[in-house]
Amino acid sequence: MLQSLRISNYALIQSLEMQPNSALNTITGETGAGKSIMLGAVGLLLGNRADTKALLDEEKKCVVEGSFQIGTYGLEDFFKANDLDFDSECIIRREISPNGKSRAFVNDTPVGLDILRELGLFLMDIHSQHDNLRLGDGAYQLGLVDVFTQSKTEFEAYQEAFGIYQKTAKALEKLTHEAAEMKKEADFNKFQLEELSALQLQAGEQESLESDQELLENAEEIKSKIQEILGQLQDDQFGALRLLSMANQGLQQLTRYAHKFQAYSERFQSMVIELKDIAASLEDEDAGLEVDFEKLEIIRQRLSNIYHLQQKHGLDSVEKLIELEKELADKVFQVENLDESLEKLRIEKTKAEKEMLVQAKALTEKRKSGFSPFASQLQRLLQQLGMEDARVEFIHQGIAPSKNGVDQIEILFSANKGIKPQALKQVASGGEFSRLIFAIKYIMADKMALPTLIFDEIDTGVSGEVALQMVRMMKEISKKHQVICISHLPQVAAKGDQHYFVYKDNSSDKTISKIRLLGKEERITEIAKMIAGANPSASAFESAKELLAN
Length: 550
Description:
- With 550 residues, the chain is α/β, with parallel strands linked by helices.
- The protein is built from 19 helices and 15 strands.
- The chain has helices spanning 35-45, 76-81, 113-123, 129-134, 138-148, 152-199, 205-217, 219-234, 240-257, 262-288, 293-313, 318-336, 338-384, 424-427, 430-447, 464-477, 490-493, 520-532, 538-549; strands spanning 2-10, 13-18, 24-29, 62-69, 89-96, 102-106, 109-111, 124-127, 391-402, 405-414, 422-423, 452-456, 482-486, 498-505, 512-517.
- Strands 2-1-4-5-6-7 form a six-stranded antiparallel β-sheet, with helices on one face. A six-stranded mixed β-sheet has the order 8-12-13-3-14-15. Strands 9-10-11 form a three-stranded antiparallel β-sheet.
- A hairpin with a 2-residue loop joins strand 1 (2-10) and strand 2 (13-18).
- The longest helix is centred in the N-terminal third of the chain and has 48 residues, at 152-199.
- It is elongated and about 145 Å long.
């Protein structure tokens, strides 16, 4: 239920605030005073697009804020799913800045318009002239049938089955396409895989082979140079180790003369030890290195094969070639198992399609079960609204499965005796449409948990007893739902539990719209003016009092 509405700097509204009653609220005022402007502002709370042209003062931001009582609506899961704080009082706010930036908040948490639109579906149903256009749309009519027949369970079951079928069908289509492409490349991939597999590549081997090649290619020079170095180190008379040994003995003698030379001696001994270790390592290298032209040729050939494959595939390492080999192996494996995979998906698709059609049949039967009672109820309500000869029929035909089922319906309507029912967009006048829409809203209100219904001049084209019957039905709706009705009829205005009056204020430089809640005497005056014009007679006042009394 809408508890309060605040609008500032929107169109002709400088500042407006109202706290509607939980039952029937009527809003009246002269044409152009701003009644429909209020609906535009409410639309912002429900996620409609914003426009800076709507700013009254282009240098200030526009703010529209609505407070809703939602404690009994069961929206906790919605708030949790969208990471919003839940409270029994929900405050929605829209702000439009002068630079055109629009922001939306739910309980002070910024949200996107998609979330606002989804939340709005649980809070309000606004009738406008757009509903008249939508009523001729088959999808909209199908939605009405679903609400009337309470087909939510069947519809959700169908949508789940349809989603599984669609997913499986797309997977089969994708694999079929991939299979055709993969089979074209199968022989080439297999050849490339065999070429790579034949080498039995090992991670890190390229660096090792290149190092071995470097040694073998220079083996004679390396051995010769090692021998030369060993001679320089190990010669019995002039080798570096011999000379260093003599120097080491001298240092040891120095330590006997002064303790400070001990550190030099230790450092020198460490150097000698390191040099001896180098000499030993060079001897090992010399012993382990052989001039082996056959081994060198094997290494050269293997590296040539590796370089060839790297150049061929545009890769720069053995590791990447190994990765390519795995990818090719996967492709070859997939091709070899394509038929099995395709058959498996075909079976899954057939199974999913059967389940979808089972759920579609259940949904169709549920929908069809509502055609006759829905039509009868509509006809009965239309008769109460002055259309004694009204006839309503539902035409159904099956269609290919879609997200909404396998049904296409069309509501046929005739307002006059002897005239065959035809499609709504072809036969209904404005007044007939208003009454038809109202009758549908009346039925839907009993089927849906909509807390607030807003009617924007739904009484267009009706008067007299029909208007009284319409407002009686509004009163009936308002026992379970909050109703806000913008009206030009005194019969409707008089029955509101609260009566708001919208008017223009021309006292300043710029015309602005204002709204006020009318007291008892003010209501009499306003309704009298609605009956007889700006200067109502005494009889108009009496008629106004009578309408209010009844």
